[in-house]
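re: ur msg from earlier - yeah i can do the uracil complex, just paste it... oh wait u already did. ok heres what im feeding in:
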Amino acid sequence: MNEAFDAVDIIGAKRDHVELTDAQIDWVIDGYTRGVVAEEQMSALAMAVYLNGMTPGEIARWTDAMIRSGQRLDFSGLSRPTSDKHSTGGVGDKITLPLVPLVAACGVAVPQLSGRGLGHTGGTLDKLESIAGWRADLTGSEMRAQLEDVGAVICAAGASLAPADRRLYALRDVTGTVSSLPLIASSIMSKKIAEGTGSLVLDVKIGSGACMKELDQGRELAETMVRLGTDAGVRTVALLTDMQTPLGLTAGNALEVRESVEVLAGGGPPDVIELTLALAREMVAGAGRPDADLADALADGRAMDVWRRMVRAQGGDPTVPLPEARETHQVLAPADGMLIELDAYAVGVAAWRLGAGRARKEDPVLAAAGVQLHVKPGATVRRGEPLLTLHTDTPDRFERAIEALDGGYTIAPEGSNPAHRPLIIDRIA
Ligand code: URA
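and the outut:
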């Protein structure tokens, strides 16, 4: 077949800071999906984008071309409005688990397509797979039926959803081109727009445990994604939230499910509750139900009821005890004083090394592995008291997990004033 463009010319243009035309972008994404643009050519183009960036017009077209590379779901015929949330990923970020049933309990359907974890951040599907029998793969008609019946679905994105992004994301992962703002924004938003949600809230994490370490970068990413969503007809807002320390008191799959169930039962750590309610407020407002009583839905057990129905609808048994690690190891406070820092990245790497995460896409994860926090920054500690408990099935993993935590926490003299970091830093609409 006669091709309209040559990949080498497009790579050369991006290398030389020449803005790509709509037709070039459409062709290169389509050509990559068809296999006409080779992996090494797309690698070179991704690196040129990484180094030279993209204009807002290029990002919008690139996103649109990735959406058009596959199927676009449509839930407009459902009897309730839809809303979804996407987090850019962090340590202990289990918010999806209590959030989705809570929002569904308030009459808003949530069609959440999630992923698995890679590196030090966990993945929602990995967490849910620690529940006996739960399955992530649903057909389109199963997803629609569950949305109509239960109002909440968390499942894996099928191969037909933005297939260009699926290939490009895997390629970026092995070519040092993940942390590029245009590529992250277009990757996330192509999937969320193709998913067919009516409104969307983005949780853009900032700090050591997030992909965006600096506030300015996170703000730019949030603004770019909000613009992409809004221009595509999806009501989109973003919260910038802190990821300098882990969310809640657990990082690891089954540990995080347990903590999420505590939140649904009316308990749980204050930061997890605060962020769940803040994101839920945005979701119900985006779906046109701003007056929904979220705190009531948590307190009176309606959200828990949706959780159980959602887990059962996907083959899971919420009454079966979650897996527990065969081995534990406590990390003790080395001195009296105040814990002023507990670094999210250090805890994330420790949980990963204990077996909670994977280094390659095809690696299995250990459901019971992870890190449990006994204290959060701002707490007073006594020498010898436990700061953290490490959980794993294979004790030879402890040494490298402990190494990851070296320098990851700071105990200052009692009475010190730790820097106050608000959990919710800003809102972008
Ligand atoms: N998540 C995605 O889906 N894509 C990215 O590029 C980064 C995070």
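cool cool. DSSP finds 16 helices and 13 strands in the chain. ping me if u need the other ligands too
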